[in-house]
Amino acid sequence: MRIDVVSKPSFKSEDFQCEPWFGSHYTEEDVSPSLIDLWKDHPEIDVSLHLPEKNEFIPTDFSICSDGLDTIDTASPRCILDEPLVKFWYKLDST
């Protein structure tokens, strides 16, 4: 099970590891077995929490949009847009 926490001010800088591709700092903590048990069999499950319906408008064939990026096979993602408010990374999924 994996849970990502974006920010936790109580962490000390030496607690962090560095993700190799994007340079993001992160830390890992174990989830207690009692908390996992509570999640598995919670007494008050909110029925409004459910997976969404399948989105029929999500495309699956991107071949007509190819601009040559899919022909470059790299071992790690590469930044293809780097602006002050956005960074966009690309890596071909060859699995």
From TrEMBL:
Gene3D superfamilies referenced in this protein's UniProt entry, alphabetically: Metalloenzyme, LuxS/M16 peptidase-like
Gene Ontology cellular component terms for the protein in this record: cytosol
Taxonomic superkingdom: Eukaryota
PANTHER family per the UniProt record, alphabetical: INSULIN-DEGRADING ENZYME-RELATED, NARDILYSIN
Pfam (any one): Peptidase_M16_M
EC number(s) on file: 3.4.24.56
Record GO terms (molecular function): metal ion binding; metalloendopeptidase activity
Enzyme class, UniProt record, top EC level: hydrolase
Signal peptide: none
Annotated keywords: Hydrolase, Metal-binding
InterPro entries reported for this sequence: Peptidase_M16, Peptidase_M16_M
Domain Peptidase M16 middle/third: 1-94
Name of the protein in question: Putative insulysin
